[in-house]
Design brief:
By secondary structure, this protein is of the alpha+beta class. The chain contains 11 helices and 5 strands, in the order αααααβαββαβααβαα. Keywords: Coiled coil, Membrane, Transmembrane, Transmembrane helix.
Length: 297
Amino acid sequence: MKKTFLLLFITLLMLGCKKSELESVNSSPAVAAYDVEAPPPPKEVQQMAPPKAISEKLLPDEDQSSQSPVAPKKIDTISKKIIKNGNMKIQVGDIKKAQTQVGEILKKNDAYIQNEQFQNTDMDDNLELIIRVPHKNFDALVNSFSDGVGSVLSKNISSNDVTEEYTNVSIKLANKKIYLEKYRDMLKNASTTKDMIEIQETIRELEDEIDIAEGRLRFIDDRVKYSTLKLSLYKEKVRSSSTSKIGFGSRLADSVTEGWNSFVSFLLGIISFWPFLLIIPVIIFLWRKWKAGRTKN
């Protein structure tokens, strides 16, 4: 009887072990998926090697780098601001001819006349020109006047570096614009009338300061872009025998005229003292009367 129970127990134990092994095999999805459904990995994936470092992914390909040049780095700086001015005085033989030559030189150098003034005297003719010329053509213009127009009597050229002033004004202008936007936002959220009035007054002052700064920058840009040259064309008049006042007769007549004018001026000066002339006889009369009374005593 005991042998029968022992044999039955061993049989059941063996059946249970086999069942557990079958369940463990069937319950493994990785093995089943790999053996049944999952295909082997493609050859391209097997042959692809991982990058050595992350920076290698960011490096451009050799073909792309050779085709697309690297963009230059933008430098946030203000270029040099140089204002050039000049003064020239040239003696010429004929004003009209010299004026024609000046017009051709101006046209060649893209310059223009801003102001023109002509004076005709007994001694000379003088044509004053204020010329505006592009900065790059200033030196060529001055050289052209020096070489082909006439004899240069005087020349003065000056350069003024206003880069620092331009930079300071630009920085202050940018800051004022930032503050202006902030005050405009504050105006939208203002809750009282007093705050609105104060903010509007501040905005008005900022707008005026911005207009002044922008005007100053425009003025500097104009003076930098176009240089200014003051040109004087001078022609001394040649005296003829009919118009000359240097001869003896002319000098004698001028001397007589000048002497007569001096005499008239002297006479008029004496007449201007007529109140004092009236006082003198009175003083003389009183002095004689006083002297006569003293003699009697």
